[in-house]
Design a protein that fits this description.
Among the domains are: 11-49; 139-271, PAS domain (Beta-Lactamase, 2-Layer Sandwich). The protein has seven helices and eight strands, in the order βββααααββααβββα. The chain has helices at residues 53-83, 91-102, 107-160, 170-183, 202-206, 216-224, 267-316, and strands at residues 21-26, 31-39, 42-49, 188-190, 196-199, 230-237, 240-250, 256-264. The strands form two sheets. It has a five-stranded antiparallel beta sheet, sandwiched between helices. It has a three-stranded antiparallel beta sheet with strand order 1-2-3, with no helix packed on it. Helix 3 runs antiparallel to helix 7 (267-316). It starts with 20 loop residues before the first strand and ends in an 18-residue tail after the last helix. The model has no long low-confidence stretch (mean pLDDT 80).
């Protein structure tokens, strides 16, 4: 089994047929299944979570928004080609054409553009603030999590070497790797001089991707400043940035005999995945809101400018020398 779907132990619920592909739906968990049964004793089930109507509408709105942006860019290029005078091409000509066309924009259109731009500006500000908050919140949770991990690892490893101390042989390396597997972490063990003793990733050091010396800041904080731990949120291997925690290992006489390091290589990948998912969802939601606001702006602009449209139509029917009907306005406003 692989994936997040919880499968039943009894496969009869899928009703598979030999040498045939069958589809079924789990309406309770919103999953669809593709079932294939190569033999009577084997069954392969591929499951996929269904996409809701809101997600589909958001994706459609996103493509519609892209189409609008493309249309605006294309319209701008066509306008530039048509309005630029070949004999006087320059900023003056462009500015003159813009002023002429700006004066031709209807009051209704100006209201629509103002509403849309106001909402878009608000959404951008809210999106940036949300991203900034999520970034700080994730970094804070990451620091708390890695602090908790390094403290537990420090205490458990001190118990393991409490009486024997640290021995550098194959059995000790195997025990160290097993200890890291039990705690589900990656670990490095350094001497009091900052030299690497043991690691769960020997290939990185044997291939000289990482130096065998402890980080200078971590060594300074633990050895010179005598701190109980050190967290480096921006440790680097080339372009890879990850968080790492360090702590001293003490023996039965409360003497520091080594330093243990916990590099969290997967944290940046997790962070990138979360941010990518957040930005993707935000773009889809904003695209849907943008389309809804565009429709609302057209409706509001028509409602606001309806008195002007009514007066315009009434005045256009006025004829000099003829009997004209008075303009009747039943509202008590301007």
């Amino acid at each position: 089994q692989s994936g997040s779907y919880t499968y039943p132990l009894d496969g009869k619920i899928f009703n598979g047929k030999k040498d045939d592909f069958i589809t079924s739906n789990d309406n309770e968990l919103d999953y669809s299944h593709l079932i294939y049964k190569p033999t009577e004793s084997k069954m392969v089930v591929i499951s996929k979570q269904k996409v809701g109507y809101v997600e589909r509408l958001a994706a459609l709105s996103f493509f519609f928004l892209v189409f609008i942006i493309f249309s605006l860019v294309l319209y701008g290029l066509i306008w530039l080609i048509k309005n630029l005078d070949d004999e006087r091409v320059g900023w003056f000509s462009i500015n003159r054409s813009l002023m002429i066309n700006a004066n031709k924009i209807l009051y209704k259109t100006r209201i629509q553009v103002s509403i849309v731009l106001s909402v878009v500006a608000t959404l951008l500000i809210v999106g940036w603030v949300t991203y900034y908050y999520m970034n700080n919140e994730y970094r804070g949770q990451q620091t708390i999590s890695i602090k908790d991990k390094i403290r537990k690892v420090q205490q458990n490893y001190e118990k393991q070497v409490f009486s024997k101390g640290i021995v550098e042989d194959e059995d000790a390396v195997a025990d160290f790797v097993n200890f890291a597997d039990v705690n589900n972490v990656d670990l490095n063990l350094y001497s009091t001089q900052g030299n690497l003793l043991m690691t769960t990733y020997p290939k990185l050091y044997n291939s000289k991707v990482i130096g065998r010396k402890m980080g200078p800041m971590a060594y300074t904080y633990l050895d010179k400043l005598k701190r109980s731990e050190y967290i480096n949120p921006d440790e680097k291997i080339g372009d890879l940035t990850y968080a790492a925690a360090y702590a001293p290992i003490r023996n039965a006489h409360n003497k520091t005999i080594a330093y243990i390091g916990l590099p969290n290589y997967s944290n940046e990948e997790e962070y990138s995945d979360k941010i990518a998912l957040f930005v993707s969802n935000l773009i889809n939601i904003y695209a849907l809101v943008f389309v809804a606001v565009g429709v609302l702006a057209v409706f509001l602009a028509n409602q606001i400018t309806s008195p002007l449209t009514f007066i315009q139509e009434s005045i256009s029917r006025t004829r000099i020398g003829q009997r004209n009907e008075p303009i009747v306005w039943r509202r008590h406003d301007e």
